[in-house]
Specification:
The complex is a heterodimer of chains A (388) and B (532). With 388 residues, chain A is an alpha+beta fold. Chain A is built from 14 helices and 17 strands. By secondary structure, chain B is of the alpha/beta class. Classes of the chains: A alpha+beta (388), B alpha/beta (532). Chain B: InterPro entries: ATPase_NBD, Hydant_A_N, Hydantoinase_A, Oxoprolinase-like.
């Protein structure tokens, strides 16, 4: 079946085709929203570009056009990034995971739901949709990146990660069905990845059209796309990319974001040893202010993603609000896995979406989940209070 | 006769520099124009040096050159070998086949997709097979490649740690295609990151003949001039390798120019930790010296439109050189670069009676360019009256901006905030400000800075390295490290060095994050002498 037959069946006339330029802009925007994490998106990008080159159409549709009773699922990888760079996937891993999940559920999965922004996972949704001839919905589960399977707006609003299917390149398969225990699903998925040889490919979060509409971050793909476009246009026209992002978010989404610092990294303190890091890349950086921020000091903690920002000792942003550090000239995000002393950039804070700020949401990715004693306060309130 | 004389060349985009040295003495130096074929430019420089120094050719013990032969061939898609491409990794890796993302013209120049085979096999990080190696498929592929390719590139998943499948495929290729086929194994080219390593391996296989021809031509040329000396090629860490080894690993020369500059600067100044600022006409490369060698880049290096992970010096380039144009409004500086007068500095610059204010002119006004270098045919200033017209404030403002550009670039290369020495070299070195450069302990123009790269090429030192993975839960750490040191020393010998002179430069231990157990990568770099 072609993707256009699916669109016709649902009466969708309004959709967008994702071409090379589009996927490159979405990837750039998503890596900015990844708040320092997500890792290198290269493999997912190459995969998607290959799919487009083969002549497969990739179609992005609006969430409100998806019928309530249609089912979809998200796809992605889970495991060690270093293994992924050395052992890219088989061309059929995601297709297999998707189809096996469909078989286990006894339901047709007719649409791909992007999982997160950043890294390989933000792009493979497009590759697999192109291969399967089904559309991608303009949503995701966080509009940023988080390291663990259960840290999504779907769980934050009462849905579950399982049933899920995890496969490897040889066709080995694990069906994960932990009912409401999302943390256990994450556990099993990670152990399966290790048994496979460090990386697994999964289809998870089977959701109905109605659940997608009620619990996802809506238009997250458009937001990533708009940000990516704004930055690539700023590069061409020699405009400040950070200002362009702020303007774009305000204009098209009514979202107020905040440039709160400009400086350079003067100290990086990484945690070492499995005990301290629990397999994450974690630590703390210090930035020294430049220009109008001269004599100010910013401190940012990270655990794969940037977590908490303090300027001159006062907290300015806590998870799940987004902290991004962007190169002043190129707008390229500075990632926690590749940052170095001397990197220069501006800190831009973007409020997390309301669906991320539920009670359950703060339990699974709020300050206390990362061991902070401070209670969560929305970034826009803190910024207003401190007059920044 | 004692063979104490060494000759070094450094091929740049515009000039080919040469020096002839005896012990610590520089007997003669030259700058000749780089020729399109590169080789004849080197031979011209060689003739200049022999004529000027009047050295007896039999005294010459070493001839070495840093070169752009391979880079040019890849960029121009010229004279490339047709390459048979094996990837060992199916059923994994097939989502992104070999040559994905390559420019089409380059892909065609090396024979294209029809010579690509993805074979079942490869390893997991822990040493298990992904699946057993499909030897029959390798044999069948070889039969298809017969008569169609000049060289073969073999890349196996996790081969830098577990080389067995790559080695086995190489044996089969030789059995079917004969001993004369040239084989590049990815385990010898670079490290983890399959796609970039594969790209690097394929590129290496594509320039074997280019390197072979240039080395044969230079061997001939030296022999005809009565020189009986070994030939060496500068590699990406700034040390040299024997020319025979270079034929197998031509890709290790792509960054030989900037690397040789760093080594030359270290040699000339005696400083082994600091920054090297190599100033040209339109741009400046800043490199960092650690223990006398250029620091390696941690990011991917793009060559001819292809992403690679070949070890190259960590360089930061900025659009600032002697010919860079300064835009001003009265005494205020509005912008510096990125435009440059380039070659036309001697017509367009104010110092030469032209209309355009350049970095060079500001240096003349500052009094920084008072002595001429005999190696350049032009004077630094032919119209001093034009320079006198410049206001003091403008010169000061421009100097301040240029200094700031230098400061920011130097700072970005540092890994800690401490001040460090800066060595300024290259043809445009004298145009840079040397006073009040913050972040530096001192700013030095070493003698002979204008032929720094050629001097770097004459240093008779070879660098080599080796890496392996150890599981510290079952292996003794010290023993594991010693084994890698031994491997590196063997590699040094293969590259043309004297094994007994090997010294360890550094030992890196990189734990595998996100993995259970105590697995880590061990990497050892060594250096040794060319002669005993």
């Amino acid at each position: 079946m072609s993707v256009y037959e699916v669109l016709e069946k649902w009466g969708i006339k309004n959709y967008r085709i994702i071409d090379e330029q589009a996927i490159e802009e979405i990837t750039l925007g998503a890596s900015i929203l990844a708040t320092g994490g997500g890792g290198d998106p290269e493999i997912g990008l190459l995969w998607t570009l290959g799919t487009i080159e083969k002549g497969k159409d990739i179609v992005l549709i609006n969430p409100e056009d998806v019928p309530d009773d249609v089912m979809g699922a998200s796809v992605g990888c889970l495991g060690a990034p270093i293994v992924l760079t050395e052992k890219p996937p088989s061309h059929n891993v995601l297709e297999k995971a998707f189809k096996e999940l469909s078989r286990y559920l006894g339901e047709n999965l007719e649409v791909v739901i992007p999982f997160e922004c950043g890294g390989v996972n933000s792009t493979v949704a497009y590759a697999i949709a192109g291969e399967l001839g089904i559309p991608v919905i303009d949503v995701d589960g966080m509009n940023r990146a988080f390291p663990e399977l259960h840290q999504t707006s779907w769980v934050a609003n009462g849905s579950h990660a399982s049933p899920a299917v995890s496969v490897d390149d040889r066709g080995n398969m694990t069906i994960i069905d932990t009912k409401e225990d999302n943390l256990r699903a994450e556990n099993i998925a990670r152990n399966a990845a290790m048994a496979y040889g460090g990386i697994s490919w999964k289809a998870s979060y089977p959701l109905t059209g109605r659940e997608v509409k009620e619990k996802s971050i809506l238009y997250s793909q458009s937001i990533a796309w708009e940000i990516g476009k704004a930055v690539s246009e700023a590069r061409q026209n020699h405009r400040n990319p950070i200002d362009e992002i702020i303007k774009k978010l305000k204009e098209t989404r009514g979202v107020e974001s905040f440039k709160v610092f400009n400086g350079k990294i003067v100290d990086i303190n990484r945690d070492f040893g499995g005990e301290a890091t629990k397999g994450f890349s974690s630590g703390k950086i210090q930035m020294e202010g430049m220009g109008e921020y001269k004599n100010q000091i910013a401190e940012i903690d990270f655990q794969n993603e940037w977590l908490r920002l303090k300027i001159d000792g006062e907290t300015l942003s806590l998870p799940p609000d987004l902290i991004t550090i962007l190169d002043n000239e190129t707008g390229e995000p500075i990632r926690t896995d590749i940052m170095k002393y001397g990197y220069r950039g501006s800190i831009l804070l973007i409020p997390a979406q309301e669906r991320m700020r539920t009670e359950k949401g703060l339990e699974i990715f709020g300050p206390s989940y990362f061991g902070y004693e401070e209670s969560y306060e929305p970034v826009e309130d803190i910024v207003a209070k401190k007059g920044r | 006769m004692k063979k104490e004389v060494r000759i070094g060349f450094d091929v740049g985009g515009t000039f080919t520099d040469g020096v002839i040295v005896k012990g610590k003495d520089i007997l003669s130096k030259t700058k000749t124009l780089t020729t399109e074929d590169v080789t004849s430019g080197i031979i011209n420089a060689l003739d200049d040096l022999l004529t000027a120094s009047k050295v007896d050719p039999l005294e010459v013990g070493m001839v070495s050159f840093g070169t752009t032969h391979t880079t040019n061939a890849i960029i121009e898609r010229k004279n490339l070998n047709k390459v048979g491409i094996f990837r060992i990794g199916a059923p994994a890796t097939t989502a992104i086949p070999p040559l994905t993302g390559w420019p089409n013209d380059l892909k065609e120049a090396i024979g294209g997709n029809e010579n690509v085979f993805i074979i079942n096999g490869g390893s997991e990080y822990d040493g298990r097979d992904i699946v057993p190696l499909d030897t029959e498929a390798v044999q069948n592929a070889c039969k298809e490649l017969e008569g169609k390719v000049d060289s073969v590139a073999i890349t196996g998943v996790f081969s830098p740690m577990i080389p067995d499948h790559e080695n086995r495929v190489a044996e089969i290729v030789k059995e079917v295609l004969g001993d004369d086929i040239h084989i590049t194994l990815s385990q010898n080219i670079s490290t983890i990151s399959l796609l970039e390593r594969e790209n690097s391996t394929i590129l290496n296989a594509s320039v074997i003949s280019v390197m072979q021809r240039s080395i044969n031509a230079l061997k001939d040329a030296t022999k005809k001039r009565g020189i009986e000396a070994s030939l060496y090629v500068v590699q990406n860490d700034g040390s040299v390798m024997s020319s025979d080894y270079a034929v197998d690993y031509p890709i290790f020369t792509v960054a030989s120019g900037p690397a040789a500059s760093v080594r030359g600067a270290v040699y000339l100044s005696g400083i082994t930790d600091g920054v090297v600022v190599d100033v040209g006409g339109t741009s400046t490369d800043v490199g960092y010296i650690v223990d006398g060698f250029p620091r390696e880049s941690a990011i991917t290096v793009t060559i001819g439109g292809v992403k690679t992970n070949i070890r190259c010096p960590d360089l930061l380039s900025i659009a600032l050189g002697g010919g860079t144009i300064i835009k001003n409004s009265g005494d205020k500086v509005v912008g510096i670069g990125p435009e440059s007068t380039g070659y036309n500095l001697v017509h367009l610059g104010k110092s030469f009676g032209g209309p355009i204010l350049t970095v060079h002119d500001v240096a003349v006004a500052r009094g920084g360019l008072n002595k001429n270098l005999d190696i350049f045919t032009n004077n630094f200033v032919t119209h001093p009256e034009k320079i006198k017209e410049l206001s003091n404030d403008l010169v000061m403002n421009a100097t301040k901006n240029i200094t700031e550009m230098l400061e920011v670039t130097i700072d970005q290369m540092k890994t800690t905030p401490e001040d460090i020495p800066a060595l300024i070299v290259g043809g445009g070195a004298t145009t840079m400000p040397k006073e009040n450069v913050s972040g530096t302990t001192e700013v030095i123009n070493p003698d002979h800075f204008e032929v720094c790269g050629a001097i770097g090429a004459t240093i008779a030192e070879i660098g080599a390295q080796a890496e392996a993975v150890a599981d510290l839960e079952v292996e003794d750490r010290e023993q594991a490290i010693n084994e890698v040191i031994e491997m590196a020393k063997n590699n040094l010998e293969i590259a043309g060095g004297v094994k007994d002179t090997a010294e360890v430069i550094d030992i890196e231990e990189i734990p595998f994050a996100y993995m259970p157990g105590k697995r880590q990568k061990i990497r050892v770099r060594v250096k040794g002498k060319v002669f005993n």
